[in-house]
Amino acid sequence: KTKAFIFDLDGVIVDTAKYHFLAWQKVANSLGINFTHEDNELLKGVSRVRSLEIILGLGENVEITEEKKNELLIKKNEDYLVYIDKMDDSEILPGVMKVLDFLKANNQPIILGSASKNARPILEKVNILHYFDDIVDGNDVTNAKPDPEVFLVGAKKANQSAENSIVFEDSVAGIEAANIAGMTSIGIGEASVLNEAKYNFNNFTEITEDFLNELINK
Ligand code: B16
Ligand code: MG
User: Fold this and answer.
1) What Gene Ontology molecular function terms does this protein carry (predicted)?
2) In this structure, which residues have their CB less than 5 angstroms from ion ligand 2?
3) CB environment 48-83: b (16+ within 10 A), e (fewer)
4) CA distance 46 to 193
């Protein structure tokens, strides 16, 4: 059988959260706002604009103009891209290649469903752009996760129904989006945090070929 396998990017294929953190921390510090690793968790799966709003909310009565906000968004992305530029395939998370290779060998559509506007350059940097039959990212959709738009568009590109689509996600918002879409949600990370997921794994090394075969033949 053929299914659509939809992968989130940040936190699933690569750990870019650490680079987002460094770039956002610079922005926060420039505004006198304390921004911790714990705060960074709030930004996972969330769009760039929304991330800035969350950071501004961490400060006390920080009010800035729209113009300044746009400036900060540009500055943040410029900083982030400096880190991205240094990435290579050693940054692909454990077990990911094994799963991508297995799906490819079994002729399953592989789709990217990410909120990031930098998805393509990141996939290029880590040398796996050619694995993807289609890419749906922050440039293609208007509604951010937990809205299911990004995954619904992805399934459509693979010519598969939502029921025949499987989503790998590391964020609560992403799992919620997959569930709302009526897709099979697979949480990658803390099961206690991603407790709404249909299946949970700490990382891709725990995903067996038997499990993937079960998903394909269901
Ligand atoms: P960018 P994902 C998301 O990617 C990240 O988890 C989130 O932290 C980030 O703010 C968002 O992309 C936008 O990224 O600034 O590169 O457009 O997890 O949906 O792959
Ligand atoms: Mg993610």
Assistant:
1) beta-phosphoglucomutase activity; magnesium ion binding; sugar-phosphatase activity
2) 8, 10-11, 45, 170-171
3) beebbeebbeeeeeeeeeeeeeeebeeebeebbeee
4) 16
Question: Euclidean distance between the first and final Cα of the chain, in Å?
Answer: 8
Residue with tokens 């490819």: 104
pLDDT of res. 206: 98
- CA of 24 from ligand 1 middle (Å) equals 12
CA–CA separation, 117 and 208 (whole Å): 31
Whole-number Å distance, alpha carbon 11 to ligand 1 midpoint, is 9
Residue partners of 81: CB distance under 8 A and separation at least 6: 118, 121
Residues 113 and 152: their CA atoms lie apart, in Å, by 9
Structure tokens at 18: 């650490």
Distance CA 43, CA 93 (A): 20
For the chain, how big is the Rg over CA atoms in Å? 17
- Beta-bridged to residue 168, according to DSSP, are 7, 186
ipTM value for the complex = 0.94
Looking at residue 61, its pLDDT comes to 87
d(CA 46, CA 173): 8
